[in-house]
């Protein structure tokens, strides 16, 4: 099993490469890409409680890398990913929710968090990047038919 490594960007970010796929350098995420991810977020404190996940909204999270649209730790920790990769990010308060905690109150002030993140796909300059094998496995795992020929997303 791979270990967490400290990010070159900050001591407030540790990255574990849980699933890494081979892809060429041009097919890896960079700042400015619109990424589609599914994630689970956990508190890294005594409770280890899950505080958020994209599956409960039945839709992947979409955002642009490098724009600090969610937490800065994602902007740094999701760089150079291939579609289908999974990373586990441990993010300190300076790159997560800071001294105030989250707006929802689910993440207390000055708390480290852990995210398990699957990169589904990303878009750059109108071109979509995805991993066919990963999407096939993903759909088989999370989609089902209702008997009437309709497909429902169980995420």
Low-confidence spans: pLDDT under 50, at least 5 residues? 144-155
Radius of gyration: 16 Å
Secondary-structure element pattern, one letter each? EEEEEHEEEHEE
In one word, what is the shape?
globular
User: What proportion of the residues is helical, as a percent range?
Assistant: 10-25%
State mean pLDDT (0 to 100 scale): 85
SS field, number of helical segments: 2
Oligomer: single chain
Q: Characterize the largest beta sheet: strand count, sense, and whether it forms a barrel.
A: 8 strands, antiparallel
Give the N-terminus to C-terminus distance in angstroms: 27 Å
Query: What is the beta-strand fraction?
Result: 35-45%
Derived from helix and strand composition plus strand pairing, the structural class reads mainly beta
Say how many strands there are.
10
Tell me about this structure:
- This protein is mainly beta and 155 residues long.
- The chain is 11% helix and 35% strand.
- The protein is built from 2 helices and 10 strands, in the order E-E-E-E-E-H-E-E-E-H-E-E.
- The chain has helices at 72-77, 132-142; strands spanning 5-6, 13-19, 34-43, 50-53, 61-64, 86-91, 113-124, 127-130, 143-145, 151-153.
- Strands 1, 2, 3, 4, 5, 6, 7 and 8 form an 8-stranded antiparallel β-sheet that branches.
